[in-house]
Amino acid sequence: xxxxxxxxxxxxxxxxxxxxxxxxxxVIVPEQPIASKNTPAFNESFEKLLNAYxxxxxxxxxxxxxxxxxxxxxxxxxxxxxxxxxxKGDTTGTIQQVAKDFAGTIVGSCKGLVGETDLTKxxxxxxxxxxxxxxxxxxxxxxxxxxxxxxxxxxFNDEEEAAWISTSNKIxxxxxxxxxxxxxxxxxxxxxxxxxxxxxxx
Length: 202
Hints:
Radius of gyration: 27 Å
Strand order of the largest sheet: 2-1-3
């Protein structure tokens, strides 16, 4: 009798839990990277440009003019070496010409930044570089990551707006920086995201 009770309990347990053979195994498919519309050669050259730009921005945040000058020289070289002819989908050559013009602006303003001794004037050149970078990203439809266009309403003289780009949506202000003589606390993060550029899924 006791044997029959144990046998019945075992049957109930197997029925409730199941053997697992009837359920298909869950398959997790990894997300596939989105193919860039531009060539690897172009993307590599643009990433060098972007990284050099970020280095200039970070140096200005820290009020380090020596680092800003060094980074600007790297940025100048990267802009001059940008593989514009690798841009795809430009049957008329118009996109390449516009990109070349923006790259030329970056080169010229990098020379200006290095040549200036006054920090405010260096930041003026950086402002020109930033606007050219923003327009360049949109022109070539750089699609390897999101680019954020950010702005401070009081970058110069507490009343003049200036913008920059970033690969992060966090505001780290290169115009007021971390050591501003007037705004010692809280102004490093002054600003807002004005635009986010994402060509990855277009």
